[in-house]
Amino acid sequence: EYQLYVGGGILTERMKVALKTSTEWSDHVFAPNYRLMPLEEVAAFIAENGHLPSVPSADCMVEEGLDVVKMNAILLEKIEELTLHAIAQNERIERAERLIAELLARLAQNED
Questions:
Q1: Would the pLDDT of 35 be above 90?
Q2: Closest CA to 24 of 68, 70, 61, 67
Q3: Residues 6+ apart with CB under 8 A from 81
Q4: ∠ CA(39), CA(43), CA(47), 5° rounding?
Q5: Which of 13, 20, 80, 101 is 20 to 30 A from 95, alpha carbon to alpha carbon?
Q6: Is the pLDDT of residue 81 over 80?
């Protein structure tokens, strides 16, 4: 049940939305037991569903509308997941660069 309805939109310079509990936010992504979906699974989900996992489809948004708090939490969750993927990719790149440097050093020693 809505306490206020405004047709035509609202213009404001600032809006603050309160959360009832911290479980409404997305910090759970950084918990040790969080299962970060592998990018291959994300790609398969997108190919099958046409949107990101946990993100409502356009049809759902039309039907149900937008809950600002929930959507901000979902978007932050996706940013946090992307950050974790970027960190993991950076670690793999650094390992690969170290291995390449080591192999090049060995190769140079063998050429001497």
A1: yes
A2: 70
A3: 29, 36, 37
A4: 170
A5: 80
A6: yes
| CB contact burial 67-101 (16+ within 10 A = b; e otherwise) | eeeeeebbeebbebbeeeeeeeeeeeeeeeeeeee
The chain-wide mean pLDDT, for the chain, equals 93
* Complete DSSP assignment for 21-32: SGGGSSGGGGST
Which residue has 């759902």 as its token pair?
A: 60
| Nearest-5° Cα angle at 30, 25 to 35 | 100
Sign of the alpha-carbon dihedral angle for 35, 36, 38, 44: positive
86: pLDDT confidence band, cut at 50, 70 and 90? very high
User: Whose CA is closest to 24, among 84, 82, 67, 80?
Assistant: 67
Nearest one of 27, 29, 16, 31 to 69, comparing CA atoms? 16
- What pLDDT shows up at residue 37? 96
